[in-house]
Design brief:
Elements: H1 2-5, E1 17-21, H2 22-37, H3 57-72, E2 76-77, E3 96-99, H4 106-109, E4 116-122, H5 125-133, E5 137-138, E6 140-143, H6 148-157, E7 162-165, E8 177-178, E9 180-181, E10 187-188, H7 190-196
Parallel strand pairs: 1-4, 3-4, 6-7
Antiparallel strand pairs: 2-3, 5-9, 8-10
Length: 209
């Protein structure tokens, strides 16, 4: 949830959608709603604020549009607007968690880049992988499990440039930062990052005689 809401969702690898195995789904939803309901929307210069504004009103307008479209199409909003009276209809935007979402909704397909996330229940790893790969983008995936071997097996099958286990939105300068599909091309960080910023030059030398 922090990965979805950090910086009001304005992170390039922010969590855009969540898939939870059926046996953990209800508990996950309860904890997620409790966490987000406890946020304080306000001026980021105020020490009491835990959720600041969007960078621009037009960004907030897009998130509101995606959220409203999803709700109109049958999604269930779980966060009570009464908890966030600071939402001014402009850059100050309340967070929202949506269930009963589908991949027909823009909020599950486009980059929201704001404090909204859809959560779906899945019956198996195979279903989760199929849904994760049903995306035009492929920057990061965050896998939560106590079994590293299981995470590695899933990570090999997920179409992203970066795989996290039990963390999100983290950079290691020794590891390349890259994505696939419509996320973009090239790589930053690691030796690959240096290669993309330098020009190779070859010398073909032969001694006379």
């Amino acid at each position: 949830i922090d990965g979805a809401m950090f910086n009001s969702g304005q992170c390039c690898c922010g969590i855009e959608r969540i898939y939870v195995t059926a046996r953990h789904y209800d508990a996950f939803i309860d904890k997620a709603v409790a966490i987000v309901s406890g946020y304080t929307l306000g001026n980021p210069l105020d020490a009491a604020t835990t959720l600041g504004p969007m960078a621009n009103v037009r960004f907030a307008t897009e998130v509101r549009a995606q959220t409203a479209e999803a709700i109109a199409a049958g999604a269930t909003p779980l966060i009570d607007p009464k908890l966030f009276r600071e939402d001014d209809g402009g850059a100050y935007l309340m967070p929202q968690i949506l269930t009963n979402v589908t991949h027909d909704m823009r909020v599950m397909r486009d980059e929201s880049f704001g404090p909204v996330v859809g959560i779906m229940k899945v019956a198996s790893d195979d279903e989760a992988i199929r849904l994760m790969n049903d995306s035009e983008f492929g920057l990061t995936v965050s896998l939560w499990t106590a079994d590293p071997a299981r995470a590695a097996a899933i990570g090999r099958r997920v179409e992203t440039g970066t795989v996290f286990m039990n963390r999100a939105d983290y950079l290691d300068p020794g590891l390349c930062w890259t994505g696939c599909k419509d996320t973009g091309r090239g790589a930053a960080l690691s030796l690959l990052g240096y290669q993309s910023l330098t020009r190779p030059k070859s010398y073909h030398l032969k001694m006379p005689g």
